[in-house]
Amino acid sequence: MVAKINVGSSLFGALAYNQNKVDEEQGKVLFSNRMFESEDGNFNIRRCMESFEMQLPQDIKTEKPVVHISLNPHPDDKLSDEQLSEIAQEYMEKLGYGNQPYMVYKHEDIDRHHLHIVSLRVDENGKKLNDKFEHRRSKDITQELEAKYGLHPAEKKQQQEHYQFQKVDYAAGDVKRQISNTVKGLVNTYRFQSFGELKTLLSLYNVHVEEVKGEIRGKPYNGIVYSATDDTGEKQGNPIKSSRLGKSVGTDALNQRMERTAGKRKDGKLKNNIKGRVKEALDASGSRKQFEKNLKEKGIEVVFRENTEGRIYGATFIDHENKAVLNGSRLGKEFSANVFNDLFRESHVNEGHTKQVIPKEPFTPSAEPFVPSERQSENGESTIGSLFSILPGGSDSTAGNDKTPLTPKKKKKRRYGRQI
User: Fold this and answer.
1) 325 and 384 together in one domain
2) Kindly report the CA angle at 130 between 118 and 121, in degrees rounded to 5?
3) DSSP string of 169-232, one letter each residue
4) Are 231 and 356 in contact (CB under 8 A)?
5) Which pLDDT does position 20 carry in this prediction?
6) Domain co-membership, 93 together with 229
7) pTM for the full predicted model
């Protein structure tokens, strides 16, 4: 079990994040400690804020009095709500928060169910709790709990594996929930800098994502829709608007995540790390099949995009160890699509190797046309547009224009000498 401790100053932000999961039926409150409880047993942000503020002096000097902890059992640990509640309570007591007010939420938005705990880092007198060696003590506590409850050890190698992300299986039903679990898990785990990189990542798990633009009641709207696919990339069923899955996979959230990723890559460490491993795999390969095999042994998966003639026009590398996605052109010219097309063209034909072709045609709904909700339309007017201005493959405002182009006027020849 892995524990992640985050501190901050926004109590409302921490509560709102968890309440959104509850409102979207992707989470629930397991229990609370030293908090007001309503008569119907339900919690809301206002009542929770009142409970915390009663025990939070106004003259505190601690800049970040809020603590937000997540407890993440191993995917193979199937625990009941009672067991999770016991683990959360014991963890908080051992860490020194047993007498603090706190809320415990269970998140079910991905297959790996986990806990979120919101509490205060100061006592009733405004004095900060002892946080010396807090992360080290937290690790010792989780190891004790693993031994007591027979949980899987949270080794780094096990946490790095990506097997908890399952391919969407349209035939299995409950497609909305499958897509929601897969998309949210990947978006929150992997780093990507462009919409195209995200699109390639999701394609590995039978999910297709694309943007839609238009106008309703005189106002422009921008949105994102997700669809299930089969193993060849063919769409299955109707698309699902991002608003039905939650804000965390909508335009604003994706925009913010890409901006943060772009900032982290300025030092070039991650890029150079991936570039070095790709080069080693390529130098040791005599064919495309061998190259793909060598990359997988290094924890990297490559997706080649091809047209109907089999020409490679794109290459994207997914580093499952560092949880990052990079287009080949971002690594350098020596890893561009043209280089791989020339390098693997002959061996590709000889091997009879086929690869998934990611379609590029614009989105066409199979049922009713996409119409955003009022909230989407209003939000999209001011904040969503910035995302698509940096994304590849944006819509062409001139597409579908049936006007016949004007015939250019002939240029008159210049005559020299005296004219009569």
Assistant:
1) no
2) 25
3) -GGGS-HHHHHHHHHHHHHHH-B-SSHHHHHHHHHTTTEEEEEEEEEETTEEEEEEEEEEE-TT
4) yes
5) 86
6) no
7) 0.50
Whole-angstrom distance, CA of residue 102 vs CA of residue 67: 9
How far is Cα 118 from Cα 48, in angstroms, rounded to an integer? 10
Q: List CB contacts of 240: < 8 A, sequence separation 6 or more.
A: 175, 176, 179, 225, 226, 227
Residues 18 and 102 in one domain: yes
- Contact assessment for residue 3 and residue 71, using Cβ atoms and an 8 Å cutoff: yes
Distance CA 225, CA 214 (A): 13
Give Cα separations from 182 to 3, 32, 122, 232, 244 (angstroms).
22, 29, 37, 18, 14
CA distances from 371 to 9, 243, 379, 382 (A): 38, 12, 14, 18
Under 8 Å between Cβ of 235 and 198: no
Q: Are residues 304 and 245 in the same domain?
A: no
Among 15-24, 90-99, 391-400, 405-414, name the most confident range. Answer: 90-99
* Residues spanned by the domain of 336: 266-351
Residue 252 has pLDDT above 70, yes or no: yes
Task: Collapse the DSSP code of 318 into the 3-class scheme (helix H, G, I; strand E, B; otherwise coil) and give the result.
Answer: strand
224/249 same-domain check? yes
Total structural domains in the chain? 3
Report which residue type is found at 263: G
Is 405 domain-assigned? no
**Which pLDDT tens digit goes with each residue over 316-349?**
999 988 888 998 888 888 888 888 988 887 554 4
Question: Do residues 237 and 124 both lie within one domain?
Answer: no
- 417 occurs within a structural domain: no
- The three-state secondary structure class of 282 is helix
Same domain, 321 and 368: no
CATH no. for residue 27? Answer: 3.30.930.30
Q: How far apart are CA 279 and CA 285, in angstroms?
A: 10
Q: Are residues 323 and 377 in the same domain?
A: no
In our burial notation (b when 16+ CB lie closer than 10 A, e otherwise), range 251-280 reads bbbbbebbeebeeebeeeebbeebbebbee
CA atoms within 13 A on the CB side of 343: 19
Structure tokens at 30: 């397991």
- The DSSP element (H or E) to which 83 belongs, if any, is helix 81-95
pLDDT tens-place string over residues 46-66: 888 988 988 887 778 888 899
- Domain assignment present for 404: no
The answer to whether residue 322 sits within a structural domain is yes
